């Protein structure tokens, strides 16, 4: 970790620390359910995988819903690429959804929130949170049943010790704000 992380002038300030874990949450405008159908959720997941790879962000966990998403990723050496990466993701998915709905220029995304995860406990708690978000929203009974997130892969492929650490991680007061109500599919 650098002694003086790069900052983006924002309130609260955004920290850009190379090779650090970040959690990002984004919401659609007015929490509208633009991604309610399965094909739209697939579109959102595929775009997230594509865009994070293009910017050198290593995805650790993700979950996409009808009106929001969460992801955790490790930043590249230039962590300040977060903003243009999110702008590209939002632009690409908004254009695609607008094309599907036969409209142009409609705003789809409202904004995003990012958190720099600087402790192992925070990282494990957020992994747990992202993977279990579909359960929280009562879309599935077990996280690995939700096809639009990484929980199934994590359950099948992650080292058992890591799975146990994540499972045991307790949410804390800095848990992400999430008052979304995804549409039932």
TrEMBL record:
Q: Which InterPro entries does this UniProt record tie to the protein?
A: RAYT_transposase (IPR052715), Transposase_17 (IPR002686), Transposase_17_sf (IPR036515)
| One GO molecular-function entry | sequence-specific DNA binding
Give every Transposase IS200-like domain span: 17-133
Provide the coiled-coil residue spans. none
Q: Which GO terms describe its biological process?
A: DNA transposition
Gene3D superfamilies associated with the record:
Transposase IS200-like
> Which PANTHER family does its entry note?
REP-ASSOCIATED TYROSINE TRANSPOSASE
> Which protein is depicted?
Transposase IS200-like domain-containing protein
- What organism does the UniProt record list as the source? Kouleothrix aurantiaca
């Amino acid at each position: 970790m650098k002694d003086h992380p790069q900052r983006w002038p924002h309130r609260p300030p955004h920290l850009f620390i190379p090779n650090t874990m970040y959690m990002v949450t984004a919401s659609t405008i007015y929490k509208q359910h633009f991604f309610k159908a399965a094909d739209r959720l697939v579109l959102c997941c595929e775009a997230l995988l594509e865009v994070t790879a293009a910017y050198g962000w290593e995805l650790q966990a993700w979950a996409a819903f009808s009106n929001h998403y969460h992801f955790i990723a490790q930043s590249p050496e230039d962590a300040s690429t977060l903003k243009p990466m999110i702008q590209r993701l939002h632009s690409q998915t908004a254009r695609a959804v607008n094309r599907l709905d036969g409209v142009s220029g409609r705003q789809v995304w409202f904004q995003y929130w990012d958190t720099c995860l600087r402790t192992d406990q925070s990282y494990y708690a957020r992994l747990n949170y992202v993977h279990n978000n579909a359960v929280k929203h009562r879309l599935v009974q077990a996280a690995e049943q939700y096809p639009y997130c990484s929980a199934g892969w994590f359950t099948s492929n992650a080292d058992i010790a890591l799975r146990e650490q994540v499972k045991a991680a307790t949410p804390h007061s800095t848990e992400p704000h999430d008052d979304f109500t995804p549409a039932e599919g």
